[in-house]
């Protein structure tokens, strides 16, 4: 399969490297020139539980340099960059190209649908871990799963083909008619932990310092899942709560991506996570005071990090 990956950060590079190892024709698309240059010169270094090696049978290009129309375009860009990123690869989206979003947050399908018909959009969510250790170097330890479905809910042959291709690459995948449940469950998890760590400027395990930390995180989970139910989505509150409790205990020293963005002076995904939840909550008349307060606090923190005041 000809596969292009739009957004070759940690997750995009991990997926691209593993897919290339199994013989798929992979092109990584990104605007991080240092990352692209190292991959072009030395291959992509993958450090996983199965070993440390270099993957050389893939391309790493800027979107404007790519010319081959892929069978599958996997989108890993941050939500606020989706529309601009899609515009940069319009020439690559052919009449039979499928697009799979594995992005965080809400609103990504709507952005994709402005360019690709819904019947060729695959909605997915993944729990695979990955970190960018440096230019051309991705580190991933542990396991995850991918759940996906077509955006219009119709079970098409391409869906099963993509599931098989990803699974063959070691990226355990499954078709799931309730993928929107998985999306909202991940949104609830992220809406609780990401902003709390960002406001505190502390890793995930710091939330366990006092009982108020887990209690506040679980309150936010309850608010987000209430909005999901009001939107007609079936979600598993017990599973999300268990995942949050486990993360606070087990993810020692881990700084969520939102906190990493603030520390680097980059915009965060707060609008597509807590912000999108607040918008949906207002539409359905659901109160989410804790979720909204965290959104406002992160906006303030973000403003200070991206536009610091001169002493």
List keywords for this structure.
311 residues, alpha/beta, Rossmann fold, N-(1-d-carboxylethyl)-l-norvaline Dehydrogenase, domain 2, 8-stranded mixed beta sheet, 4-stranded mixed beta sheet, 11 helices, 45% helix, 17% strand, globular, oxidoreductase, pantothenate biosynthesis, 2-dehydropantoate 2-reductase, 2-dehydropantoate 2-reductase activity, ApbA
What does this structure look like?
The chain is 45% helix and 17% strand. The protein has 311 residues and is an alpha/beta fold. It folds into 2 domains: 2-177, NAD(P)-binding Rossmann-like Domain (Rossmann fold, 3-Layer(aba) Sandwich), CATH 3.40.50.720; 180-306, N-(1-d-carboxylethyl)-l-norvaline Dehydrogenase, domain 2, CATH 1.10.1040. Strands 5-2-1-6-7-8-11-12 form an 8-stranded mixed beta sheet. The mean pLDDT is 94.
Largest sheet: 8 strands, mixed
The figure for the number of domains is 2
Reported by name, the CATH topology of the largest domain is Rossmann fold
Strand element count: 12
Total helix count?
11
- Taking the alpha carbons of the first and last residues, their distance comes to 54 Å
Please trace the helix and strand order, writing H or E for each element. EHEHEEEEHEHEEEEHEHHHHHH
Low-confidence stretches: none
Reading side by side through the largest sheet, how are the strands ordered?
A: 5-2-1-6-7-8-11-12
Broad structural category: alpha/beta
Per-chain topology:
Elements: E1 2-6, H1 10-21, E2 25-29, H2 33-42, E3 44-48, E4 51-55, E5 58-61, E6 72-75, H3 82-88, E7 98-101, H4 108-113, E8 121-126, E9 131-134, E10 137-139, E11 146-150, H5 157-168, E12 173-175, H6 179-200, H7 212-230, H8 237-250, H9 257-263, H10 271-284, H11 289-306
Parallel strand pairs: 1-2, 1-6, 2-5, 3-10, 6-7, 7-8, 11-12
Antiparallel strand pairs: 3-4, 8-11, 9-10
Helix pairs in contact: 6-7, 6-8, 6-9, 6-11, 7-8, 10-11
């Amino acid at each position: 399969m000809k596969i292009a990956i739009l957004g070759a950060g940690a997750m995009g590079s991990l997926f691209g490297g593993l897919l290339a190892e199994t013989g798929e024709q992979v092109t990584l698309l990104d605007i991080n020139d240092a990352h692209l240059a190292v991959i072009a010169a030395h291959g992509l270094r993958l450090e996983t539980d199965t070993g440390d090696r270099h993957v050389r049978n893939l391309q790493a290009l800027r979107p404007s340099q790519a010319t081959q129309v892929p069978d599958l375009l996997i989108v890993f860009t941050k939500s606020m960059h989706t529309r601009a990123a899609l515009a940069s690869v319009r020439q690559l989206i052919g009449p039979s190209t499928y697009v799979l979003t594995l992005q965080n947050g809400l609103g990504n399908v709507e952005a994709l649908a402005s360019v690709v018909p819904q019947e060729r959009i695959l909605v997915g969510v993944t729990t695979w871990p990955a970190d960018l250790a440096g230019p051309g170097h991705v580190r991933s330890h542990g396991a995850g799963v991918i759940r996906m479905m077509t955006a219009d809910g119709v079970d098409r042959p391409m869906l099963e083909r993509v599931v098989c291709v990803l699974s063959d690459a070691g990226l355990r995948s499954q078709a799931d008619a309730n993928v929107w449940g998985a999306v909202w469950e991940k949104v609830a998890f992220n809406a609780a932990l990401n902003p709390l760590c960002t406001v505190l400027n502390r890793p995930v395990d710091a939330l366990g310092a006092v009982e108020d930390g887990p209690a506040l995180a679980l309150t936010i989970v309850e608010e987000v899942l209430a909005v999901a139910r009001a939107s007609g989505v079936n979600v598993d509150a017990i599973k999300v709560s268990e995942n949050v409790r486990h993360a606070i205990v087990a993810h020692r020293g881990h700084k969520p991506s939102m906190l990493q963005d603030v520390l680097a002076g980059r915009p965060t995904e707060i609008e597509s996570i807590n912000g999108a939840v607040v918008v949906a909550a207002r539409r359905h008349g659901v109160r989410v005071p804790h979720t909204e307060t965290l959104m406002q606090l992160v906006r303030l923190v973000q403003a200070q990090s991206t536009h610091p005041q001169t002493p």
